[in-house]
Amino acid sequence: MSRSTAGSSTSEARSRLLSTATKIFYSEGIHSVGVDRVITEAQVTRATLYRHFSGKDDLVLAYLDQADQAIRQQITAARASGGSAADKVRAVARSITDGIQSPGFRGCAFLNAVAEYPDPAHPIHQAVLAHRQWFLDTVTDLLAQTGGEGADEAARHLVMLRDGAMAAGCLFDPHLVSETFLQGVEGILQARTTPTPSPSTTPSPTADTTV
Length: 211
Known about the structure:
There is one protein chain. The protein is mainly alpha-helical. The chain contains 9 helices and no strands. Helix 6 (109-116) packs antiparallel against helix 7.
């Protein structure tokens, strides 16, 4: 076997392992799935798995890294869709609802993972926090471009709405959940683009002269 053929075979085996682990981890949970199950369904040997991953945690980290990269690409595409800053926020929100309404949706891979790894010092927990910080920073930057102050607070609000939608999307009607989420995002945008009346223009309460 040539070196290039061997390299291709090695890459294919790793890809098959990661693809299999991703499917099972996402649909059934992480702790409930052992490496033997992944090895069997990926049709590789135990030695092949440990050639590519140091252990199950390393495989889980690769699974989350793949999910992270997919979401980054999704958000990048949404941000490049054109239009105003508010339209870009809407595009990001729609990309989230596209996921909620996709076949086999089982919630957020990162929220699911962190529920199984509650120790803040664990590398998997840390990977989840890093992904969420990136998403929060991205949304904060987008909302800041819509004008006005308080982009940090608005971004935290949007992330909270997103978390709720991701949790509800696999429990209730995903179309209804998506509509509710989009309405919530629209409310955030309207709050940022609607001028707040200054104290001088706010009508003062009328004195009650009734007896």
